[in-house]
Amino acid sequence: MAEEQRDLISDRGSGVLSAGDTQRSALGHKATLSTLAILVALLIAGQAVTVYFVYQQSGQISKLTRTSQTLQLEALQRKLPSSAKPVSKMKTAMVNMPLAMRVLPLAPSADTVDMAPASNKTEDQVKHLLLETDHKKMFPDLKDNLMNNLKTLKNTMTDEDWKSFESWMHKWLLFEMAKNPKVEERKATPAKKG
């Protein structure tokens, strides 16, 4: 009998222990699942935040790319020779060209532009310099006196070009006046004796 009681006690003890183990095992399983669910949720949230920041930065990256391309294009345009201008700029230059310049025959050929100026006169030197930068520039043939030549220019230029030319003439006149100031003649005054 004593043995039977021991067996019963050991059976009860083992039954109590196994019930406790089952509860602990179920709680451990729930804790593991909760922890795993939290980790998965954190990973998904982290991915969402990363996607948000990448999307936000992509706008700035595209702006930087456009700016970089614009700067590269400007650098290439600066490296081009001055005669290779974009078509749009050449069209506006033709529109603003004075009428006198449009009526004249074509400019001299490139062979004559590379030659030295016709003489040492300022007019020839300036013409040569202007033709070096743009060999298509034209100059009217003005063989009359100053006033008649100015009237001819005024009649053949657009109003805007003539106003610009008048402004230049005014500034040139001021320059010439400043270069050669008129000295007032002083009358001889007797020195005072004291």
Automatic annotation (TrEMBL):
Gene Ontology MF terms: cytokine receptor activity; macrophage migration inhibitory factor binding; MHC class II protein binding
Region Disordered, annotated ranges: 1-20
Transmembrane segments: 33-55
UniProt entry keywords in alphabetical sequence: Glycoprotein, Membrane, Secreted, Transmembrane, Transmembrane helix
GO biological process per UniProt: antigen processing and presentation; intracellular protein transport; negative regulation of DNA damage response, signal transduction by p53 class mediator; negative regulation of intrinsic apoptotic signaling pathway in response to DNA damage by p53 class mediator; positive regulation of cytokine-mediated signaling pathway; positive regulation of ERK1 and ERK2 cascade; positive regulation of macrophage cytokine production; positive regulation of type 2 immune response
Keyword set includes Glycoprotein: yes
Domain of life: Eukaryota
Domain MHC class II-associated invariant chain/CLIP MHC II-interacting: 3-106
Compartments where found: Secreted
GO cellular component assignments: cell surface; cytoplasm; extracellular region; membrane
MHC class II-associated invariant chain trimerisation domain location: 120-187
Primary location group: secreted
Extent of Basic and acidic residues compositional bias: 1-10
Protein name, as recorded: HG2A protein
Protein source organism: Balaeniceps rex (Shoebill)
